[in-house]
Amino acid sequence: MKLSSALLFFFSALGVFNGLLISCYFLIFAKQKRVQNTLLGVLLLVMSIRIGKSVYMLFVAREDRNLLVLQVGLSACFLIGISLYHYILATLKGYERIPKAWKIHFLIQAMLIAIIGMMYPYDRYPALWGNYFIQGIYTFWAFYVLRTAFVLRGVLRKLVKRDPNSTVLEYWLAFVWAGNLLILCCYILGYFYWYITSTLAFSFVLYALVLFIMSRKNAKEIFREPKEKYQSKKIVAAEACALHEKLDKVLAAEEVFTNPSLKLSDLAKLVGVPAHKLSQFLNDNLEQSFVNYINTKRISHAKNLIKAHPNYTLEVIGYESGFSSKSNFYASFKKITGQTPNQYRIENKESEGADL
User: CATH for 292-356?
Assistant: First the structure.
């Protein structure tokens, strides 16, 4: 074996070995027996088995291969998609137990794999596996990757917009999903061109995720029990309406949004509710992040200042409205109104002239 091939084998095999170790830790040895940890362990286990099959194929001669190993690896691949989907969903919703429907789902798929494997074993039906079963398995995996993206759409939208309220846990979930997507894409690419890309991608993703959680702060945020399970404690309509009125009164009376250092916890204290409840109200009921909500109030205030004080510079108006910089003010104004502050001022002057 050439040195380059030996290094590729070592790196790929090490990724599989470490993946199996980490999965065993979450499934067997972790002190916190959380649903999320169990599902993450299952995801890593089936992924490691699938990648292990790839390493086996790459570095064992065709005539020496045991086709049962290939069948087991492909069968494990059938469970990757649903493991990813249920892990992400359980983490987002803060499930304390695995729902019965999920257990039935896993059981049905495991039985389906076992029945097909016994009726059509790889060693007797290699063409059937190569031409149909493999494509079906990857299609099933891709379907659940897309389904998981739909569940994560709010989180992904926040991260793309670089929302400062994005949490470590949200970054983690996005990384896990993106890593799964990368490995799937590498398998599809490898099917036509360079097969080893999938094994290298798995090792790369695994080590990247391990580095991400090496920080004690990150690990504590990712693997701790959620403080509040928003999905199981929805704010009822009457309470949401009362909270909205109180929030509007506080903002109108004190104009706290003009403070560029305003935080969610500061506003929650003035309104008289816990910070997590205010955050939930803004995200669930108003469908806005805290930053977007406050910036909307600031822009509304800035528009009033532009009308009332035509002699004020736009920079002064931005600072008076609560923006910490001119660039932030211009960007937010453009995003919310569709025009720059200067365009709005000119338009306002023209409308005043027309009235006269």
Answer: 1.10.10.60
